[in-house]
Design goal:
homodimer; alpha/beta; 10-stranded mixed beta sheet; 4-stranded mixed beta sheet
């Protein structure tokens, strides 16, 4: 199955307690594409400006990533984000956002992108997500990300998009905000009541939880002694998650669980270095080894144990 | 193996968004004893006052709980705690604490309590923990809990106790505070460097993580749509955890993992109702079923998946 992702392509300037970088390649669609391309072909849809040169395009166009729908806007400037993290790496502090060409972005999908079987609507305006969803009417599995801004300012449209997708990926706080339910399981059940068959709660250093109509699955984050930059972890997770679904072609509970393991693994590599540095040079054997390790780290045998009355 | 626990026996008055109770039976040693008695014999050491009557004693003295070292202090008042929780059930707000007989508590252990093979030093002054640790010199597995107050005011003594135990159970924030390490894995490794072979990070609604010299294991909390009162969850976890270790008699990685699963399970029952209400009427088959469910909720098969280079 092939994947299409619609989202941002950006330059990120990031400072954490462990270092800083200026104008790294970033953006939701960028992180997603890199991660998902380990498993399936991915079509990336998003705008860039004149400052996005051949070198940047070459980094993006790794094997499996189709860039014909990367829209070059003449005279425009690529989306730019500057932010920092303190020791609590779960919280990003935004210091500057310049939307640039992203401000006027209207996704234009080629026939190849529209023909995708798996679609990821990264965190952009719900109106744009809805338009893309309608164009990709043959997609068999559609997932969506969003954020507090859209829950606050465009809740009605966001709910209309959610009704049309198969999976909602949000962090815990967003799920609670969206549903008004402080209990995470009830929040997920509320979303499932709106249409999607599955909800993934992204929980940062605590991992991720998958709630489906009849199932529950939770995985810790891969334990790391050194986390340098969490930027893009959520989209990298989504890339591993949807990439796995595209590669398997099936949609049963086992595939979703395998997808969670691959999403968790890709995200763990992402945060080990700045921006896309680590994932860009990742090798298949490293992914396979870490997925196997995750399995070992969560397995317990029900040793026979007499419980007393 | 038999267990000894030293800690508080208390009356708790608790209010949460879901209800309130006055003067429930509580305290760290009380919650621990109830939970661990499903797996092994437990000797409870702690003081009570004149207000602790025959009815309270009868509730405590369930099968497997030995109460001969519950010290009745004539003229004294039992430890009392009043607190409340808002929708964030991870944070307890203390409204009143009356130490009563706990203020002058000096643990007096009978020969039976001293002869334990498993010892739990619940969250009390580190000086008292050290004294008890020295009395129980035949214990094969000793675990300790503590809190921010002692890390702040009695760090040196606390470190001396930690050097003598096999396992430290703390929540994430306490582990970071104790070690000055923002990264949880490094924080646990620091503690292990001081002597204990294992660290359990208690993570509330996110579950618990076990870090040993050469291993890592993490379990989510059992998913609940309704959590009424988290008071005592940590000590109930400890009861299931150490009870399992005592029942198995061995100390390998598989036993520790099974102990994590049973601790998680007991804690999940604890928070479903107020105080000890739910655990008091828990049946063995309910424990076994939930441990099995936890195994199902965390298992994933490494479906064969070609990762592309």
């Amino acid at each position: 199955m092939s994947i299409t992702v619609v989202g941002s392509i950006a330059f990120d300037s990031v400072r954490t307690p462990f270092g800083e970088r200026e104008r790294m390649l970033g953006g939701t669609a960028m992180h997603f594409s890199l991660a998902s391309s380990f498993f399936a072909d991915v079509h990336i849809v998003g705008p860039v400006g004149d400052d996005w040169g051949e070198a940047e395009m070459a980094t993006l166009a790794r094997p499996g990533v189709h860039t014909h729908d990367v829209e070059r806007v003449p005279g425009g400037e690529t989306f730019f984000w500057r932010g920092h993290y303190d020791y609590d790496l779960n919280t990003a502090h935004t210091d500057d956002t310049r939307l640039g060409v992203f401000a006027e972005f209207e996704p234009k999908l080629s026939e190849d992108s529209r023909a995708c079987e798996v679609l990821f609507l990264a965190n952009i305006q719900p109106e744009l997500q809805l338009g893309v969803r309608e164009q990709c009417d043959r997609a068999r599995f559609v997932a969506l990300d969003s954020m507090n801004l859209w829950i606050d300012t465009a809740r009605d449209v966001l709910l209309r998009v959610i009704e049309t997708v198969d999976c909602v990926l949000l962090n815990d706080a967003e799920l609670r905000m969206l549903t008004g339910e402080p209990n995470l399981i009830r929040a997920a059940r509320t979303v499932i009541g709106w249409g999607p068959g599955s909800v993934v709660a992204k929980q940062g250093e605590y991992g991720a939880t998958l709630i489906t109509r009849h199932g529950f699955f939770s995985l810790p984050a891969y334990p790391l002694e050194s986390v340098l930059d969490p930027t893009g972890a959520g989209d990298t997770f989504a890339g591993g998650f949807l990439g796995t679904i595209a590669a398997h072609g099936g949609l049963d509970e086992e595939v979703l669980r395998s997808a969670m393991a691959h999403g968790t693994t890709l995200a763990s590599f992402n945060v080990e270095e700045f921006g896309t540095e680590r994932v860009s040079r990742l090798r298949p054997a490293e992914i396979e080894a870490r997925v196997h390790e995750l399995g070992e780290m969560t397995r317990f045998s029900g040793l026979p144990l007499p419980v007393r009355g």
